[in-house]
């Protein structure tokens, strides 16, 4: 197999090194789903560093009361850019990148359904991201030296009205996200078409890997919820440039309508981000427990119900605007309802681990940490779903703690797990286990130290988005701990960077299937050749590689 | 994946393995996401009905665009006939129906232009006059934009066809394009109901 691969791998012999410009050119013009996947993930990680530095600056400012490290104006810009960057330029590209890389491999295809559309999607994302950050230079337009948007990541009206948001900073926010959103929609449509039309023989929907199922639901969510944001942003652009009145309360427009439109996008977006986390956990936990996933059909059903219910929960972000009792009740109940399928998933992962031969390699450590931390996030989520509780704690640090437990404790931990798990497939080299374990423990300590105390600060009454606080209100200890934890998070990240750099230089070769896994991506070489599979595989069960390795006891006899 | 049993299984399932066409699924995704987009504009229109603080109001200035609507809806029929002709290999008939579709779509767009001209110059209604103007020009304009894109694609296809590049084998691609045109027509039914029936 490998001999043939090397013969086919390209016309250029290995010893003739291409110049940097040639190699860069190859990457820029590529339509290969694996390269685009890597480009998505690499850009996501770069923006992760940027948004992490923004958060670090805010934590320095809040470490002690009455601090003057940042001005209030800069603080506003930083939390806006931190939130926007983490959601749109870190979360989205990393999950789309993983889907891009893995879905064709997992369903036994050679590329996405529309490879050029795929490249289009990436470059739309990339230039949208550049537009957003160009606001640093061009934000103030003719008014001054330049600034970033400062309207919060959800850009509530009337803050965004041209009277209150001078210059072009908000316009860069609008246009950057609008362009990136078009890219996301294109790629989601592409991935759905791939799953429907490119499956290898035998890969029925009932045999799709859980990762593919979850990402399929995510793509449908993107198709349905990205356009509302796009439409609302078009309206906002019309307000700002053409003098329209959509969100202009002085002409009868409604600021609340923006909130509805934003959260119709914004809340499903949270599920767009976290479901891929579930997807990684659903692949990794079975492999390291040496058992097939517990309750495959129920997991799929739970995913579909999460996807469906998530479209009807958005106004739980808006309990404090004074909706009708009917509205409040509906959104309380729908929000609590979504905890049921999510709880089913947690129990199914536990059921997968139960009685398994668990191996706590780094990917499994991160997944285990994810289970605990995501449970905390879910519990505070159910608390915040209760409208009276939300009236008390809305816009407090309790909410900040809640969604960071979702997006870091949940999503980021599973992304780290995925990096350790699939890195050998992408690069052909195994990451160092010892450094990986240091990364896990130091980062988990730092994360909980940063965001655990914020629950308390929130309950004590500390509001979100304040640039400082007075001494003697009981916030000092919790904010001090919070900022102290950042040191550990940075140290944890340095372990990861060190691990990746040293592994790329001189890591041990991984082989095709280092984890003894069961899905099709492990059937090809590491890294996979441009055409993925020499021969399109034929699948007879949910674990094709198990069948291959255990011809005496294949899965298809029992499914 | 070796062994005789597996090989036998392979040939069996490869022969029986059929998948939907990429074009159809891709266009279905596009229509789904476009529907979500229009839903938001329609919701905004419905939400702001009767909320304008100043005139002109819809009942004063809007007339039912009956002829234009009939033209656009008929174009759904002509495009279906065109696709059917192409599937039967009758390129000439296809060209004729296709051209008629373009003319009907063009007539609709022209009628919209005339309507806007009257609204802007006679009734002095622009996008910044009041909430009616804001929502009306946005919703109707977005639909007209989709008609324009559709006409460009239809025109491109006609140009290809007149150069002899459209064959019977392309019937499926042309059909996928016709789905988009049907979608634009269906959206007009919603926009018509919203703007000219409910909103007046």
Topology:
The complex is a heterodimer of chains A (559) and B (200).
Chain A: H1 2-8, H2 20-28, H3 33-62, H4 72-106, H5 115-138, H6 169-197, H7 210-242, H8 255-289, H9 296-309, H10 325-353, H11 362-385, H12 387-393, H13 397-427, H14 433-459, H15 476-506, H16 544-549
Chain B: H1 4-16, H2 22-47, H3 58-61, H4 66-87, H5 91-122, H6 131-162, H7 171-198
Q: What does the overall shape of chain B look like? A: elongated
| Structural Rg of chain A | 24 Å
Total domain count of chain A:
1
Distance from first to last alpha carbon of chain B: 67 Å
Strand content of chain B: under 5%
- The helix content of chain A, as a percent range, equals 55-70%
State the total count of DSSP E strands of chain A.
0
Overall tally of structural domains of chain B? 1
Give a structural overview.
The complex is a heterodimer of chains A (559) and B (200). In chain A, 66% of the residues lie in helices and 0% in strands. Chain A contains 16 helices and no strands. The N terminus of chain A is likely disordered. By secondary structure, chain B is mostly helical. Chain B has one domain: Four Helix Bundle (Hemerythrin (Met), subunit A) (Up-down Bundle). The radius of gyration of chain B is 22 Å and the shape is elongated. The termini of chain B are far apart. Chains A and B meet through helix 6, helix 7 and helix 8 of A and helix 1, helix 2 and helix 6 of B.
């Amino acid at each position: 197999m490998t001999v043939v691969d090397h013969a086919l791998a390209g016309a250029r012999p290995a010893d003739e090194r291409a110049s940097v410009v040639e190699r860069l050119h190859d990457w820029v013009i590529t339509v290969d789903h694996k390269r685009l996947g890597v480009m998505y993930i690499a850009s996501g990680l770069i923006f992760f560093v940027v948004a992490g530095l923004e958060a670090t600056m805010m934590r320095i400012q809040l470490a002690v009361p009455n601090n003057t490290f940042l001005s209030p104006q800069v603080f506003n810009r930083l939390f806006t850019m931190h939130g926007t960057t983490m959601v749109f330029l870190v979360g989205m590209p990393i999950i789309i990148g993983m889907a891009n890389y893995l879905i064709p491999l997992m369903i036994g295809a050679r590329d996405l359904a529309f490879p050029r559309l795929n490249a289009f999607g990436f470059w739309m994302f990339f230039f949208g991201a550049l537009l957003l950050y160009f606001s640093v230079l061009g934000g103030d337009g003719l008014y001054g030296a330049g600034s970033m948007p400062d309207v919060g990541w959800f850009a509530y009206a009337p803050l965004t009205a041209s009277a209150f948001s001078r210059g072009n900073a908000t316009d860069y926010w609008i246009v950057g996200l609008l362009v990136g959103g078009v890219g996301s929609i294109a790629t989601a449509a592409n991935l759905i078409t791939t799953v429907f039309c490119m499956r290898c023989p035998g890969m029925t929907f009932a045999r799709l890997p859980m990762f593919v199922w979850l990402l399929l639901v995510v793509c449908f969510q993107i198709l349905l919820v990205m356009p509302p944001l796009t439409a609302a942003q078009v309206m906002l652009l019309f307000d700002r440039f053409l003098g329209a009145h959509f969100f202009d309360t002085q002409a009868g427009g409604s600021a609340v309508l923006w909130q509805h439109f934003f959260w119709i996008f914004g809340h499903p977006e949270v599920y767009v981000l976290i479901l891929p986390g579930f997807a990684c956990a659903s692949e990794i936990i079975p492999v390291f427990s040496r058992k097939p996933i517990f309750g495959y059909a129920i997991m799929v059903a739970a995913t579909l119900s999460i996807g469906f219910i998530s479209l009807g929960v958005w106004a739980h972000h808006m309990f404090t605007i004074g909706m009708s009792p009917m509205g409040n009740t509906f959104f309380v109940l729908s929000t609590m309802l979504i905890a049921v399928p999510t709880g089913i998933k947690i129990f199914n992962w536990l059921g997968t681990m139960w009685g398994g031969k668990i191996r706590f390699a780094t990917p499994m450590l991160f997944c285990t940490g994810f289970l605990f931390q995501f449970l905390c996030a879910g519990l505070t989520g159910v608390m915040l779903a209760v409208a009276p509780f939300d009236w008390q704690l809305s816009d407090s640090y309790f909410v900040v703690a809640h969604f960071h437990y979702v997006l870091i404790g949940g999503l980021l931990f599973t992304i780290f797990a995925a990096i350790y798990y699939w890195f050998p497939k992408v690069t052909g080299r195994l990451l160092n286990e010892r450094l990986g374990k240091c990364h896990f423990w130091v980062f988990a300590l730092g994360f909980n130290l940063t965001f655990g105390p914020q629950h308390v600060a929130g309950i004590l009454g500390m509001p979100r988005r304040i640039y400082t606080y007075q001494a003697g209100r009981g916030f000092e200890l919790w904010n001090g701990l919070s900022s102290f934890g950042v040191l550990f998070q940075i140290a944890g990240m340095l372990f990861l960077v060190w691990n990746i750099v040293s592994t790329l230089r001189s890591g041990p070769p991984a082989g095709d299937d280092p984890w003894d896994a069961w899905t099709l991506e492990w059937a090809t070489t590491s890294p996979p050749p441009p055409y993925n599979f020499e021969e399109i595989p034929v699948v007879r069960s949910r674990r094709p590689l198990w069948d291959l390795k255990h011809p005496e006891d294949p899965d298809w006899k029992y499914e | 994946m070796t062994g005789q049993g597996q090989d036998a299984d392979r040939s069996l399932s490869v022969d029986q393995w059929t998948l939907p066409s990429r074009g159809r699924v891709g266009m279905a995704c596009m229509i789904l996401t476009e529907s979500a987009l229009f839903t938001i504009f329609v919701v905004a229109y419905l939400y702001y009905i009767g909320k304008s603080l100043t005139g002109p109001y819809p009942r004063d200035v809007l007339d039912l665009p009956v002829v234009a609507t009939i033209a656009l809806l008929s174009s759904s029929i002509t495009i279906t006939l065109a696709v059917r002709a192409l599937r039967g290999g009758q390129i000439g008939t296809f060209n004729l129906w296709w051209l008629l579709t373009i003319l009907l779509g063009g007539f609709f767009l022209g009628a919209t232009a005339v309507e806007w001209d009257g609204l802007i110059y006679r009734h002095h209604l622009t996008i910044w006059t009041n909430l009616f103007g804001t929502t009306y020009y946005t919703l109707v304009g977005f639909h007209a934009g989709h008609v324009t894109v559709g006409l460009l694609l239809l025109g491109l296809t006609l140009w290809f066809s007149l150069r002899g590049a459209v064959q019977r084998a392309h019937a499926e691609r042309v059909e996928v394009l016709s789905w988009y045109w049907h979608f634009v027509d269906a959206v007009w039914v919603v926009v018509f109901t919203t703007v000219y029936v409910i909103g007046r």
